[in-house]
Automatic annotation (TrEMBL):
Domain named Aminotransferase class V: residues: 31-399
Protein name: Cysteine desulfurase
Cross-referenced NCBIfam families: sufS (TIGR01979)
PANTHER family cross-referenced by the UniProt entry: CYSTEINE DESULFURASE, CYSTEINE DESULFURASE 1, CHLOROPLASTIC
Family per similarity comment: Belongs to the class-V pyridoxal-phosphate-dependent aminotransferase family. Csd subfamily.
Enzyme class per UniProt: transferase
Cofactor(s) required, per the database record: pyridoxal 5'-phosphate
BP GO annotations: cysteine metabolic process
């Protein structure tokens, strides 16, 4: 029998909202613990996609006919929902992108290319996803800037003292993950933003993992940019947002050229559109952006506080039960973390464990999780990562742990 861990959550009702969960994998009921890679989608999101394509498929912003106006309204309604979802000061500060990776690349190119100079410093942490490392390496190489790294301790945390020691008068950009996809660690991004601003640097927050697990208030965080992906918060793949403060966005050059991002085009000169459209060249991912609104509304309807309480209890139970396994090594034991449990087991390769769990219908992620420098820091090739969401249950965790015990026994 499934157990609801937050009093305001009806877990059985929630699970019915996700059609994909009602299936068997390799003859076993699906247990989906790969939510840090991508979350499953509720019926409201799936139906919104279908409705757009079957009822009002049309290009937006440039048409006066009924379908175009309906599509434009639906598209822009999502922007309004996300302004409130992250508490942006203005709706124009919400830019639609392909996701977090695209958003970070936009900032690296549109801000970094214009404002970085030789010898300037970009600061990130040792726990960053590759998408918050590689774009900065590329722009640093191009501009002659220097990439500085804030270290991570044994618990998978960063120290504000280390932040203060790393950020200095040469720092121009600080880019930090809100919640680590590999460790689950929630970083003190508000405090880091203040340190960055004290040195006249801008602050970008990678919110890919945080947006469905943490309260997000960009005005309270006082970050200059906030990037997130729809597919990690019950929305479609290939869409997300970039938040940026108006004053900074208006100073930046466009990231890409084409339709929509222009005001007037001639062969002699092109003038650019206002924000946010200046950064939304070409026909956007209309259907997925429309459906993304339903994902935000789904989270709001359940309540972030309820989701967080449920996931916190699941994570605590998983840590307790997994600790029963001999030879287990946890990575990411920060006091403040989201619902990610990352570990290795002595004498059991993560890939072997992943395949054997899949045979039992259990989906986990194994490998370096696009955080190779972090894995190198811990002296490992990768981990087994179980990541939980609002539709997961105590019973699933218990079956998962019992299955791991069987696997460990075969290797002993």
């Amino acid at each position: 029998m499934s157990v609801a861990l937050a009093s305001n959550i009806d877990i059985n009702s929630i699970r019915k909202d996700f059609p994909i969960l009602d299936q068997k994998v390799n003859g076993k009921p699906l247990i989906y613990f790969d939510n840090a890679a991508t979350t499953q989608k509720p019926k409201s999101v799936i139906e919104a996609l279908s409705e757009y394509y079957s009822s009002y498929n049309a290009n937006i912003h440039r048409g006066l006919h009924t379908l175009a106006e309906k599509a434009t309204t639906a598209f822009e309604d999502t922007r309004k929902v996300f302004q409130k979802f992250i508490n942006a000061n203005e709706v124009e500060e919400v830019i639609f992108t392909k996701g977090t990776t695209d958003s970070i690349n936009l900032v690296a190119n549109a801000y970094g290319r214009k404002f970085l100079e030789k010898g300037d410093e970009i600061v990130i942490t040792a726990m960053e996803h590759h998408s918050n490392i590689v774009p900065w390496q590329m722009i640093a190489e191009e501009k002659g800037a220097v990439l500085k790294i804030i270290p991570v301790n044994k618990k998978g945390e960063i120290s504000l003292d280390d932040v203060k020691a790393t950020v200095n008068k040469n720092t121009k950009i600080v880019s930090v993950v809100y919640a680590s996809n590999s460790l689950g660690t929630v970083n003190p991004v508000k405090e880091i933003a203040k340190i960055a601003h004290d040195h006249d640097a801008v602050m970008l927050v990678d919110g890919a993992q945080a947006s469905s697990h943490c309260i997000v208030d960009v005005q309270d965080l006082d970050c200059d940019f906030y990037a997130t992906s729809g597919h990690k918060m019950y929305g479609p793949t290939g869409c997300g947002i970039l938040y940026g403060k108006r004053a900074i966005l208006e100073e930046m050059n466009p990231y890409q050229g084409g339709g929509e991002m222009i005001n007037n085009v001639s062969f002699e000169k092109t003038t650019y559109n206002d924000i946010p459209y200046k950064f939304e060249a070409g026909t956007p991912n209309i259907a997925d952006v429309v459906a993304l609104k339903k994902a935000a509304e789904y989270i709001n309807n359940i309540g972030k506080d309820n989701i967080m309480a449920h996931e916190k209890a699941l994570t605590a139970h998983a840590h307790e039960r997994l600790s029963e396994i001999p030879g287990i090594n946890f990575y990411g034991t920060a006091d403040d973390k989201v619902s990610v449990v990352s570990f290795t087991i002595d004498n059991v390769h993560p890939y072997d464990a992943g395949l054997m769990l899949d045979a039992k219908g259990i989906a986990v992620r194994t490998g370096h999780h696009c955080t190779q420098p972090l894995m190198e820091h811990f002296g490992i090739d990768g981990t087994i990562r179980a990541s939980f969401s609002v539709y997961n249950t105590i019973d699933e965790i218990d079956f998962f742990v019992d299955s791991l015990k069987d696997i460990v026994a075969k290797f002993s």
